[in-house]
Amino acid sequence: AQSVAQPEDQVNVAEGNPLTVKCTYSVSGNPYLFWYVQYPNRGLQFLLKYITGDNLVKGSYGFEAEFNKSQTSFHLKKPSALVSDSALYFCAVRDDKIIFGKGTRLHILP
Amino acid sequence: GAVVSQHPSWVICKSGTSVKIECRSLDFQATTMFWYRQFPKQSLMLMATSNEGSKATYEQGVEKDKFLINHASLTLSTLTVTSAHPEDSSFYICSAIRQENQPQHFGDGTRLSIL
User: Fold this and answer.
1) B99 part of contact set with chain A, CB < 8 Å
2) B43-95 confidence digits (pLDDT tens)
3) Which of A68, A89, B1, B94 has the fewest CB atoms within 10 Å, i.e. the most exposed one?
4) What confidence score (pLDDT) does residue A53 get?
């Protein structure tokens, strides 16, 4: 059965520092992986996806994610965090259906 | 492109009322639409998947008669919460996809409060 895990409930990063939000997954076939961001009282916004191709995927707002097949991970990264990046981030995986991780709240400290 | 509109954004109503939430894909035809429920500080719980012209597929534990889903066209799906009670209060979010394995495009959600 497919699953996705976000081990951190919250991540705190100082503005200007690099950030990483972790995600690991388990699927039976080839993974389709996604990252979404949610601002308060809003739906989710698509950031980036991995289906095939380069392991480093670049997405919206300067975010990128690295697909690591051996570690079954798809961590979200950004070289320099902004206060406006503070939000709730969801990793998602699609096998027979799409499931979402529990979310990681990212706090960027000014 | 790929805008999904969800209406209404807020609903407050009395217990026993039925509430309809609309989800529209404004600039694309959605092969599939999804309905989620989100509790405070929790992830999205998939309630059902709907395809145009066919019956929705409900997730285990979701009452079909309680949460009626209609997908009348390639751009519109509706969720009706029938005889709503306070425990139905939640944030409901819809999403739509153009093709399988493509990203989902989400509506802004509907906050439902049942008094």
Assistant:
1) no
2) 889 999 998 888 899 999 999 999 999 988 889 999 999 999 999 999 999 99
3) B1
4) 87
